[in-house]
Amino acid sequence: MKVLLVHAHPERTSVTHHLVEVAAEVLKAQGHEIIRSDLYGMGWKAVFDGRDFPQRANPNRLSLMEESEYAFANGNQTPDVEAEQRKLVAADAVILLFPLWWYSMPAIMKGWVDRVWAYGLAYGYRGAGNTYRYGEGGFAGKRALLAVCVGGPEKDYSPRGINGPLEQLLFPITHGTLFFPGMQVLPTFAVYGAAAIDAQGMAEAAAAWRGRLERLSDDEPIAFRPQNGGDYPDRHVLADHVAPGQSGLMAHIAGSVVPKDDNNSSAAAFLVPSHFIGDVS
Amino acid sequence: MKVLLVHAHPERTSVTHHLVEVAAEVLKAQGHEIIRSDLYGMGWKAVFDGRDFPQRANPNRLSLMEESEYAFANGNQTPDVEAEQRKLVAADAVILLFPLWWYSMPAIMKGWVDRVWAYGLAYGYRGAGNTYRYGEGGFAGKRALLAVCVGGPEKDYSPRGINGPLEQLLFPITHGTLFFPGMQVLPTFAVYGAAAIDAQGMAEAAAAWRGRLERLSDDEPIAFRPQNGGDYPDRHVLADHVAPGQSGLMAHIAGSVVPKDDNNSSAAAFLVPSHFIGDVS
Q: Which of A115, A265, A271 should be substituted to probe chain B, the one whose Cβ sees the most B Cβ atoms within 10 Å?
């Protein structure tokens, strides 16, 4: 299997880089081929702009969607973007490793998504608008996994933790960015307390990470509902009989638990599938 | 009142720029002073890295948090970052205007946050770790507002829409980035269908936007729970008696509606405060 590691941290001795090294070692030992995109090391251009389109469909007005479609269809993309797309297409699994900055990716990785997720490939697949999305599309059949280094403590990200549950904060990435073009997304792997981790904590995190890497082909993906699987008859809104009474992000995960208004604030009220609880860290 | 407009779109005729122009016009007519950060126009450096710290606290290992604290405390930040912080500190209200790319900000704006939100100012306020956050901190007392241009239709972002409700997708920004250092965040203003908007649609959007701008000082902020207001006795997790039975992002908004498992998929089950519904677009 080919595994693409996309990572973003400027410091070689960071927890993020340590996870990258562990991943490369474990996956190679299992006989997998590693492909790497070290965004800081590559000096990745983060800003999506007119320079991405040296040959314009419309020289008068910059529509990024229109230009993306034109450049992807005609082989006019910049070489750095095309190289990343080739890595993605070749990969059977994609792992994004990054520190959580302001509850999201570092800008350099967001810019990797903004620029590489082209119209015709990651959206507008087959030039058909939103016909294929959420479970189908240019990256269908690939597995995806986030490995996130979080400065703060795990309790701040617990079901009732002050920051919000990590997996809900990451929904725009897991659901909106990775599942959108068809990837099967595994539950996030997180190292908490990464800002002040000691050798023992790092060893424990590395051991947990090894376990997740060894199960990369076997772990159950998050049960995001595919657009064309019957739950969204009009391709826009959940059918009334699906997750009745539920709304919000977690309604888009099959089998997620509806909280009950019964003064019970236990983990059972966490709006994620039951297999998911306890599997986040 | 001083209002900072931070905006990010590379095309001058974009819907985003149109909203910026309307904002400048309406706010000036009301006697407010406008401060602008046109991130594409400024050629903003999006990537947060070692170049942000020309004088290092630790030349051997790059800890961004440690260097941010040292640079902010000692006046060693880069001039571009310091200029943005001075604008923020001077402003009574901050409006971020951007197109929604992959359910979040463009990379250039994420990089504005990553670099400008310094330790000692936006986090680690007064050098006291997480003592002051969520409702208190370096940006306390300021109002904040997102104006987001969304390519797709509103129904995709409705309570049971396939993308997830817009305000929940934006929680890492509204709650995690703006409320964190103390800003009072107003409900998001969104223009849907921005990818194919016509003149009439744009006129309607501009009219709605004018209304929101005129009420900038009056509209009720999202009722995010302050860390030190009593709802989080240990500063980490909601007290049992607060929003009992609720978990997830929306538990951090006072008065938000708990969905009932009664086969009722109406808007009433939307996990946001009732005053919020219908006020998003």
A: A265
What single-letter DSSP state applies at residue A276?
A: G
Tokens linked to A29 = 């030992």
* Distance from C-alpha of A122 to C-alpha of B87, rounded to nearest angstrom: 37
Q: Is the pLDDT of residue B270 over 70?
A: no
Superfamily of the domain at A2-222? Flavodoxin domain (3.40.50.360)
Closest by CA position to A4, among listed A115, A172, A139, A148: A139
Q: Which residues of A touch B270 (CB under 8 A)?
A: 247-248
- For residue A14, the distance in angstroms to the closest alpha carbon of chain B comes to 8
| Most distant CA atoms of chain B, gap in Å | 60
| Residue B187 near residue B256, CB atoms below 8 Å | no
Query: pTM of the predicted model, to two decimals?
Result: 0.92
Residue A187 has which token pair?
A: 């539950």
A195 lies within 8 A of chain B by CB: yes
The pLDDT of residue A272 is above 60: no
Question: Closest Cα to residue B12, out of B50, B51, B40?
Answer: B40
Preferred mutation among A45, A149, A247, A258 to probe B, highest tally of B CBs within 10 A: A247
CB within 8 Å of chain A, chain B residues 233-272: 235-238, 240, 243-252, 258-265, 269-271
The answer on pLDDT for A265 being more than 80 is: no
Round to whole Å and give the CA distance between A123 and A19. 30
**Interface pTM, i.e. ipTM:** 0.92
- Domain ranges in chain B are 2-222
* Angstrom distances, CA of residue A23 to CA of A18, A268, A281, B56: 9, 32, 16, 31
Whether A244 sits inside 8 A of B261 (CB atoms) is: yes
